[in-house]
Design brief:
Oligomer: single chain
Strand content: 5-15%
Number of domains: 1
Strand order of the largest sheet: 1-2-3
Largest sheet: 3 strands, mixed
Number of helices: 5
Helix content: 55-70%
Order of helices and strands: EEHHEHHH
Distance between the termini: 34 Å
Number of strands: 3
Radius of gyration: 13 Å
Shape: globular
Length: 101
């Protein structure tokens, strides 16, 4: 990101050579930049979110699975589309469950 103090850490690359950002939740929380703007920036710069790291960081900050998914849904759909969201949703639900208060 161009904004001062906003830096992504990268965990590696996807099979199609996109950089995978692992600290997106932290950047979101500390910068005040909306998720869809962060996602759009990553997408246009050949990047991708580490969804697992996003979820783990949000959980570590006291957020429950259902709320995390709610935060992600609109922004992911806005940037990558509903079909992509369904894939992310399915994988995160399998990993972190769907039942929480």
């Amino acid at each position: 990101m161009k904004k001062k103090g906003v830096h992504f850490e990268f965990a590696g690359k996807t099979e199609d050579e996109k950089l995978v950002a692992k600290n997106v939740y932290r950047v979101y929380e500390t910068s005040g930049i909306p998720l869809d703007d962060l996602f759009e920036h990553l997408m246009t710069n050949n990047g991708m979110v580490s969804w697992v790291d996003f979820h783990l960081e949000a959980q570590a900050n006291g957020m429950k699975h259902k709320r995390i998914m709610s935060k992600l849904e609109e922004a992911v759909i806005d940037v990558w589309g509903r079909d992509f969201w369904r894939v992310v949703q399915e994988r995160l639900n399998k990993m972190f469950g769907t039942n929480d208060a």
